């Protein structure tokens, strides 16, 4: 039998040195006896969180220095478990070390092994206690004169941890309250932060903590007011804040009365006569309170409105003096012609000068456009900008818009996946595009992709067959079909990307030539 | 009679308690080591400093700056037409309470909201001023959650994001019709646009920049969240969950909070007479979790004919009972996605099972040691020492319905 006497309850270095020596000497766990023989004043002398050299360490320094490794996760587990208020923990941990160095190298990963499981359970209990200490320590403020006789604040707390967690947990409080002077007193150990260093001292007595604090009254009032008596759920409170913590929590004094009064307060609320709402519109939903723009209200039940024969000329004429496009954009903001408005953030209307000679039509706003509220600002928009520039066109002179003005998508976790608009949605939105064309009267409409071409030409279009050649539109307008920039972004191979990008720029150059010529 | 600080605190905490969020987690790490002044730290994990008898965590000082409000939202205790007592904190009073409670280790920080006074911009400016004063003048490094006001000036939102860890804006009701009926001054479009702006700010702040480049401005590192009230209007669970999955996808929300409509003093006659069952709220949280971490879709969960979640069973058990062909699964062979669908196996347990499986063939007693409730999982799993009896799942169904679940459908009265 080998006796190991550790310096104190959380003497990890002492335990580690001893375990190392025992394993090297071939002492099986059942022949090792661990105990703690802490002189009461050990910590008072220590002056910092470093333990004094333990008796176990000094005896056979030579063997202790020999190469000896156990997996990092086992060391971390041991550092936590050693804080458990469980006399068997030292030998339990030595047992894990013994088996690990005797061939079960990955023992610590076998969470279903009874000994590993026991250690994990202890570690969980320590972690929970550590967390509860961070939560339930309550400081009281004491004002004391400093060396010069000036009043300074010191914060003092009394706490009763379940495990030996004060030493390891002190650093948390120091990180948080580094600029304060504080003491946390517990039955087995005290910690003092002077503002510059940590001092550990023996356990203390609750009477060393001042009685009351001016702010506790406020905290109790807050605790009572934030409680909702209509949702009384005492068991949920008890499982997270067991009664053993109550005596050191100033707010806990209010609990019995809050519970007793809850039913009465709830009944009073339910029995009180209801107040009529201020607003006459309640509770029936309003029929509609705006002009019916492009069938805006008709679509609000989720059913697409039938295509309206008359575009909203009347609305636009009301806005005398205001630019026609701005009025259109305002009207489109409330569009309900198809159900796409509902999950979307906002209508993304076209953008550019009313005098633009070139209009570019895309498919629909994407994720970024939907958030920002402007067309072509996302990745496809950036690619378009680059290509436009390369083709010698100034984007500021182009009116840029989309065939469909709301983002159509499928939610996928934390993202939205683009969904192609169908014909109903393209048709529902085509009135707005027609109005934009009427307002801008461009000489050339560049259609980016099949959806845009479908919307402008009013028929299904195969890009490959119709791109890169001028198409006569009504009036004096010409049309030109090319790909959508997002098509270029989706191409997987670099060569194809380069080739298609060049073709896209060539189309845009052709567009410029059509205007110049 | 003028209210003293204690009176104001009572009124303005009471006014804030219908907001369920109290999270203080997930922000950047900071502490006060080596600092000359200021106080506080955040280390990723949130801390609940107390629990109220309603079982809710108290992590933050959750108050309104004022409960005066121009709006008249039917479900809200602070609506303009309510006869509730009104109060208003000064900026310095909120700062004093926050620092005082924080130094006593009562809270992780502040969750500040406000009734709309004068104008959205004015209100937002007041709320932001509290956060600015805490951060700049007092070096406060604790957690700050600010409620933002829909359609407030983007510049104010930008400043709020600089001081706050989390920003939030409540959608309150799941559809536009409901919002128009119950909160006539609120505008769904304005709420969505603000959420969109917040996501852009949050994303921009997370962008990695090359060394030497100016980093983007700090913006709400703990993200944004929202809350929806359940049971004040006739919306179904299905429409609520559809809304949630849209919001998670569109704005990258950290959380959607569900708050069962509960009676308020001086209630509006536009509201239902009875409170919504807390169990419905609980089921929505479970379903929300299933959507985000367990790979379920809304259509797999809200399967009741009326468009709601089953109250009798939790959503996962309801799905398992409706899909018997999927089970039993072999605990030693099934992949992660499949195991996540076993009632009684949570994300952590599944990961522990996968880890332990590399070392041994798992038997039922191994599962017990992994803290798995054998009673719950046994109808759905095969192990070397276990095969479920035919109809074991159906037995579970009837036993649970009879014994445990049914009485909890209504709120228990303890006294």
Automatic annotation (TrEMBL), chain A:
The keyword tRNA processing does not apply. InterPro entries: DNA_repair_put, DUF4130, UDG_Type-4/5, Ura-DNA_glyco_family4, Uracil-DNA_glycosylase-like, Uracil-DNA_glycosylase-like_sf. CDD domains: UDG-F4_TTUDGA_SPO1dp_like. Residues 292-306 have a biased composition (Low complexity). It comes from the Bacteria. Residues 349-509 form the Uracil-DNA glycosylase-like domain. The keyword Iron-sulfur applies. Residues 275-309 are annotated as: Disordered. Keywords: 4Fe-4S, DNA damage, DNA repair, Hydrolase, Iron, Iron-sulfur, Metal-binding. Belongs to the uracil-DNA glycosylase (UDG) superfamily. Type 4 (UDGa) family. NCBIfam families: SAM_7_link_chp, UDG_fam4, UDG_fam_dom. This is Type-4 uracil-DNA glycosylase. It comes from Rhizosaccharibacter radicis.
Automatic annotation (TrEMBL), chain B:
Its cofactor is [4Fe-4S] cluster. The keyword Metal-binding applies. Keywords: Iron, Iron-sulfur, Metal-binding, S-adenosyl-L-methionine. Signal peptide: none annotated. InterPro entries: Aldolase_TIM, DNA_rSAM_put, Endo/Exo/Phosphatase_dom_1, rSAM, rSAM_sf, RuvA_2-like. PANTHER family: ENDONUCLEASE/EXONUCLEASE/PHOSPHATASE FAMILY DOMAIN-CONTAINING PROTEIN 1, TYPE II SECRETION SYSTEM PROTEIN K. This is DNA modification/repair radical SAM protein. It comes from Rhizosaccharibacter radicis.
């Amino acid at each position: 039998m080998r006796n190991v006497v550790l310096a104190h309850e959380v003497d990890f270095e002492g335990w580690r040195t001893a375990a190392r020596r025992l394993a090297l000497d071939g002492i099986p766990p059942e022949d090792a006896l661990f105990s703690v023989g802490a002189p009461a004043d050990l910590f008072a002398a220590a002056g910092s969180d470093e333990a004094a050299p333990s008796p176990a360490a000094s005896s056979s320094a030579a063997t202790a220095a020999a190469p000896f490794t156990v997996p990092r996760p086992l060391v971390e587990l041991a550092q936590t478990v050693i804080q458990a208020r469980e006399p068997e923990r030292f030998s339990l941990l030595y047992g894990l070390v013994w088996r690990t160095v005797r061939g079960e190298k990955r023992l610590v990963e076998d969470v279903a092994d009874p000994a590993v499981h026991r250690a994990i359970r202890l570690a969980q209990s320590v972690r929970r206690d550590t967390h509860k200490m961070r939560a339930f320590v309550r400081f009281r403020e004491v004002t004391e004169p400093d060396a010069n006789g000036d009043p300074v604040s010191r914060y003092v707390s009394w706490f009763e941890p379940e495990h030996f967690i004060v030493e390891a947990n002190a650093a948390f409080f120091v990180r948080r309250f580094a600029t304060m002077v504080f003491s946390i007193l517990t039955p087995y150990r005290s910690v003092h932060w002077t503002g510059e260093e940590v001092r550990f001292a023996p356990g203390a007595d609750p009477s060393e903590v001042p009685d009351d604090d001016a702010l506790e009254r406020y905290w109790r009032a807050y605790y009572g007011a934030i409680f909702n008596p209509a949702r009384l759920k005492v068991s949920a409170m008890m499982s997270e804040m067991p009664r053993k913590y109550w005596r050191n929590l100033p707010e806990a004094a209010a609990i019995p009365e809050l519970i007793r009064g809850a039913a009465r307060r709830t009944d009073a609320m339910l029995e009180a006569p209801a107040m009529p709402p201020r607003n006459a519109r309640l509770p029936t939903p309003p029929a509609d309170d705006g002009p019916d723009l492009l069938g805006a209200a008709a679509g609000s039940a989720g059913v697409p409105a039938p295509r309206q024969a008359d575009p909203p000329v009347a609305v636009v004429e009301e806005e005398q003096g205001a630019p026609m496009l701005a009025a259109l954009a305002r009207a489109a903001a409330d569009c309900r012609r198809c159900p796409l408005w509902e999950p979307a953030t906002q209508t993304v209307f076209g953008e550019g000068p009313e005098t633009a000679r070139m209009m570019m039509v895309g498919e629909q706003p994407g994720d970024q456009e939907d958030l920002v509220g402007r067309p072509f600002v996302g990745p496809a928009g950036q690619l378009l900008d680059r290509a436009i520039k390369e083709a010698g066109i100034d984007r500021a002179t182009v009116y840029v818009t989309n065939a469909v003005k709301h983002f159509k998508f499928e939610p996928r976790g934390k993202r939205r996946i683009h969904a192609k608009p169908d014909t109903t949605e393209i048709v529902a939105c085509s009135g707005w595009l027609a109005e934009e064309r009427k307002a801008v009267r461009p000489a050339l409409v560049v259609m980016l992709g099949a959806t845009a071409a479908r919307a402008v030409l009013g028929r299904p279009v195969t890009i490959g067959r119709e791109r890169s050649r001028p198409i006569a539109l009504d009036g004096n307008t010409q049309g030109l079909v090319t790909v959508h920039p997002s098509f270029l972004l989706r191409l997987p191979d670099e060569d194809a990307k380069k080739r298609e990008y060049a073709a896209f720029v060539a189309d845009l150059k052709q567009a410029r030539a059509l205007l110049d010529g | 009679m003028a209210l003293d600080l204690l009176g104001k605190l009572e009124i303005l905490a009471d006014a804030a308690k219908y907001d369920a969020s109290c999270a203080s987690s997930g922000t950047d790490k900071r502490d006060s080591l080596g600092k000359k002044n200021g106080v506080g730290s955040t280390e990723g994990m949130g801390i609940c400093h107390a629990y109220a008898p309603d079982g809710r965590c108290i992590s933050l000082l959750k108050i309104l700056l004022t409960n005066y409000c121009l709006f008249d939202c039917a479900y809200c205790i602070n609506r303009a037409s309510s006869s509730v007592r009104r109060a208003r904190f000064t900026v310095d009073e909120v700062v004093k309470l926050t620092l005082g409670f924080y130094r006593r280790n009562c809270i992780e920080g502040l969750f500040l909201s406000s009734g709309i006074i004068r104008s959205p911009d004015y209100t937002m400016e007041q709320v932001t001023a509290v956060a600015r004063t805490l951060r700049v003048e007092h070096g406060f490094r604790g957690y700050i959650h600010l409620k933002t006001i829909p359609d407030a000036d983007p510049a104010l939102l930008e400043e709020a994001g600089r001081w706050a860890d989390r920003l939030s804006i409540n959608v309150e009701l799941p559809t536009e019709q409901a919002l128009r009926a119950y909160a006539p001054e609120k505008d769904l479009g304005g709420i969505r646009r603000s959420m969109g702006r917040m996501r852009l700010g949050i994303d921009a702040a997370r962008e990695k920049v090359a060394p030497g480049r100016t980093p983007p401005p700090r913006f709400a590192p703990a993200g944004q969240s929202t809350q929806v009230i359940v049971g004040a209007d006739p919306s179904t669970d299905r429409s609520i969950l559809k809304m949630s999955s849209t919001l998670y996808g569109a704005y990258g929300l950290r959380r959607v909070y569900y708050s069962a409509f509960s009676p308020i003093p001086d209630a509006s006659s536009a509201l239902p007479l009875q409170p919504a069952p807390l169990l419905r709220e609980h089921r929505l949280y479970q379903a929300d979790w299933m959507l985000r971490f367990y790979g379920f879709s809304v259509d797999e969960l809200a399967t009741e004919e009326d468009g709601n979640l089953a109250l009798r069973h939790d959503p996962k058990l309801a799905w398992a009972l409706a899909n018997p062909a999927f089970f039993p699964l072999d605990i030693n062979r099934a992949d992660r996605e499949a195991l996540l669908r076993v009632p009684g196996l949570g994300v952590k347990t599944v990961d522990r099972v996968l880890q332990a499986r590399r070392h041994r063939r798992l038997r039922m007693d191994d599962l017990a040691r992994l803290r798995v409730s054998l009673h719950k999982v046994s109808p759905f799993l095969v192990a070397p020492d276990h095969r479920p009896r035919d109809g074991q799942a159906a037995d579970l169904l009837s036993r649970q319905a009879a014994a445990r679940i049914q009485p909890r459908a209504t709120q228990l009265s303890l006294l």
